[in-house]
Write a structure and sequence with these properties.
Shape: globular
CATH topology: Growth Hormone, Chain: A
Oligomer: single chain
Largest sheet: none
Structural class: mainly alpha
CATH superfamily: MFS general substrate transporter like domains
Strand content: under 5%
CATH class: Mainly Alpha
Helix content: over 70%
Number of domains: 1
Number of strands: 0
């Protein structure tokens, strides 16, 4: 008989039967003993691949706008544009084009950031299969509608802004959903490396979106949106057919969170030992003093709150609901140690990353003699560096257990590399290639680590008392805060670039420095823990 907790969680989230595609596969595999022997591994691989493909499509559908900007406000410098007699597309063909592009980016990103908090709340309470499928299909619809403006000869700025707003709202279904799924199916062992490899979907999606958009940008830019829109809608239907959003649905029973839980660093271990010792002493004192609870014959005392103490030191009855997998509120999630620091840090790191994402092709074109297609192709090297940076950050984080320190070191090197790219990136294509890859490594490495491994770790923090059903809420808080920065960055870049691209890079460098400073408290804590561990080993 299933445990009451798992049955309650299944009913409360309103999960229905096994997906249709999985049922068909199971009917074909009944005669295959090899499948049954490796059933859980097969399901884990399917979750890894489906979530990877899903979020790659989300990013693929975001990228075309950065490529198409160069023809929405064309300068008639290329033969193709001159022959077509199309030097821009109203209302973006005027001198205020950069401001209007900034409005489009902000419409998408601010609606994305605000809706992210609501999406995390909803994702904890519904079937993620329906949640992601609906989100992807509707994202495809609004991506398609942006391209439809050209074929339908629509020139209303309000139309483009509304399309971007609704696209941003439905895009928020992606990140809380996929991170929660991976967190449910995979344990904590080598989490940083697994998430680092998995997080390459962001960069691969950006690359695919850029290449698809660049292929059509100089012939028919409507297809730069239509094709990604159709692809993400089709993949959303694929998830509806095959996505298993809970291991229990297919008879898989992952290792309980209580057995997987580990103390992230030695300072936490020391704090935990101190708490236990204090609890034992308090229990003995109250027992000797005759203060035992006569009804329960248990000791009633309140230990000193620490980072290992359950959030807000809530009453026992309320904590029991949490430990049974009840979703937590946004306020409770903010009390998890590290959530505020990493959320604010992500605000500034995502500001830098998304400024590159939305403005890099246009910057390359304006600072060189390359056309729109070649500029877009060259900009993909930033995402190539992002793949390398995400894997490296996750691997080093696994080795050291010092996520905040890894992020801080990468941010420290990001600032001078940004300055070098601004100063020397236009000298030659070779120098630009090398510096773009380096920028991608050090800018996207911390961003990837915080949004994946760190978010999953905090979403299963020991203060939640084994409640793994807080992943989507914690992930939404961290990524939602970061998304506000992602909205601010491109907006500021659109205004500042009208005067000087150099000032845009100064803004990005200052943002990296602030992000680094915000993690200093956690870095000091991690370094202190490492020193204690080293001293303990030396003494032993």
């Amino acid at each position: 008989m299933r445990p009451i907790a798992s049955r309650t969680r299944k009913m409360s989230n309103n999960y229905n039967d096994i997906p249709i595609g999985i049922r068909l596969l199971q009917s074909f595999s009944r005669q295959c003993p090899r499948f049954h022997a490796r059933k859980e591994l097969c399901y884990k691989m399917s979750i890894f691949l489906l979530t990877f493909l899903a979020y790659a499509c989300y990013h693929m559908s975001r990228k075309p706008i950065s490529v198409v900007k160069s023809v929405l406000h064309g300068n008639c410098s290329t033969v193709q544009l001159q022959d077509a007699g199309n030097c821009g597309y109203a209302p973006f063909d005027g001198p205020d084009s950069k401001t209007l592009f900034g409005m489009l980016d902000s419409a998408f990103l601010f609606s994305y950031a605000i809706s992210m908090f609501a999406s995390g709340f909803i994702a904890e309470r519904v079937s993620l299969r329906y949640f992601l499928s609906m989100g992807m299909i509707m994202t495809g619809v609004f991506t398609y509608l942006f391209g439809l403006a050209r074929t339908s000869n629509i020139h209303s700025l309000a139309y483009f802004v509304l399309v971007q707003i609704f696209a941003g709202i439905f895009q928020t279904t992606g990140w809380p959903g996929v991170v929660t799924l991976v967190g449910r199916w995979f344990g904590k062992k080598k989490r940083g490396l697994i998430f680092g490899i998995w997080n390459s979907h962001t960069s691969i999606g950006n690359i695919l979106g850029t290449l698809i958009a660049a292929h059509y940008v100089e012939t028919d830019w409507a297809l730069s949106f239509v094709v990604p829109g159709i692809i993400i809608g089709a993949v959303g239907f694929l998830l509806f057919l095959f996505l298993v959003d809970q291991p229990e649905i297919v008879g898989c029973h992952p290792q309980p969170a209580a057995q997987e839980r580990r103390i992230s660093n030695d300072s936490d271990a020391d704090e935990n030992d101190d708490d236990e010792e204090q609890a034992r002493r308090s229990e003995a004192f109250y027992a000797l003093s005759g203060y035992a609870d006569s009804q329960t014959d248990q000791i009633s005392y309140r230990p000193t709150p620490t980072e290992r103490t359950p959030i807000l030191a809530r009453p026992q009855a309320q904590r029991e609901h949490t430990s049974h997998g009840r979703p937590i509120g946004l306020v409770d999630a903010l009390y998890i140690p590290g959530v505020v620091e990493f959320s604010l840090c992500l605000f500034f790191t995502k500001l830098v990353s998304y400024t590159f994402m939305y403005w890099l092709p246009l910057y390359i074109q304006s600072s060189s003699t390359l056309g729109p297609e070649l500029s877009a192709d060259l900009s993909t090297l930033f995402d190539v560096g992002g793949i390398l940076g995400a894997i490296a950050a996750g691997y080093v984080s696994d080795l050291t257990g010092m996520s905040a320190t890894v992020c801080t070191v990468m941010l420290f090197f990001a600032s001078p590399i940004l300055l070098m790219y601004q100063q020397y990136g236009a000298l030659s294509v070779t120098i630009s290639v090398l510096l773009l890859i380096a920028v991608g490594i050090f800018v996207n490495g911390p961003y990837a680590l915080i949004t994946t491994s760190v978010s999953a770790e905090l979403g299963q923090h020991s203060s939640l008392e084994g409640n793994s059903n807080a992943l989507a809420t914690v992930t939404a808080i961290i990524d939602g805060t970061g998304s506000i920065g992602a909205a601010v960055g491109p907006l500021l870049a659109g205004v500042i670039s009208s005067h000087s691209w150099q000032n845009v890079f100064y803004m990005l460098i200052v943002s990296d420095i602030i992000a680094m400073v915000l993690l200093m408290r956690l870095v000091i804590k991690e370094c202190t823990a490492a020193r204690r561990s080293s001293n303990r080993i030396r003494i032993e």
